[in-house]
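In the design runs reported in the main text, the only information available to the sequence generator was the tokenized backbone. The following block is the verbatim input for one such run; it is reproduced so that readers can re-run the procedure and compare outputs position by position.
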């Protein structure tokens, strides 16, 4: 579905864009490391506890060393009773309505920005655009975007 956004127009002129109401979707699960700028992103067909379990398992296998704090919101999939969280991963719950405390929320916002007012001929074309956008980000760019002072202080305190 077309994601409308801001567009430059003459003063007093409402932006006009083609909007496609066809709904197809995919979900990105991800985490970023503000201190180094590293990112771990996986694509799934839907949002579910089973897919979140898969994400946690893959993350745990990809990052077997050290203790990893993963901030999560109150979504039911993050707290499913069936979840098996790897021993070296700690899920850190965020208070409601506080996305600014989760560094990846800022990254998602910036990743979506160039996708406004675009129409794709297929879901695959959209996925390709999203992944191309993701791969354009360097670790340094992610670090600059997500390394809030209060998060870095918390990391150093640990």
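Verbatim output:
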């Amino acid at each position: 579905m077309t994601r409308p956004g801001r567009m430059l127009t003459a003063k007093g002129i409402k932006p006009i864009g083609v909007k496609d109401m066809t709904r197809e979707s995919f979900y990105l699960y991800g985490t970023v490391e503000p201190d180094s700028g590293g990112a771990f992103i996986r694509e799934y067909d839907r949002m579910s506890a089973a897919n979140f379990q898969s994400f946690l398992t893959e993350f745990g296998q990809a990052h077997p060393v050290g203790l990893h704090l993963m901030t999560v919101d109150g979504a039911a999939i993050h707290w499913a009773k069936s979840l098996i969280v790897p021993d070296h991963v700690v899920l850190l719950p965020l208070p409601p309505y506080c996305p600014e405390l989760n560094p990846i929320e800022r990254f998602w916002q910036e990743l979506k920005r160039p996708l406004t007012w675009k129409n794709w001929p297929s879901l695959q074309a959209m996925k390709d655009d999203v992944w191309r956008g993701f791969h354009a980000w360097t670790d340094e760019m992610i670090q600059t975007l997500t390394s809030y002072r209060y998060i870095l202080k918390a990391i150093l305190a640990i």
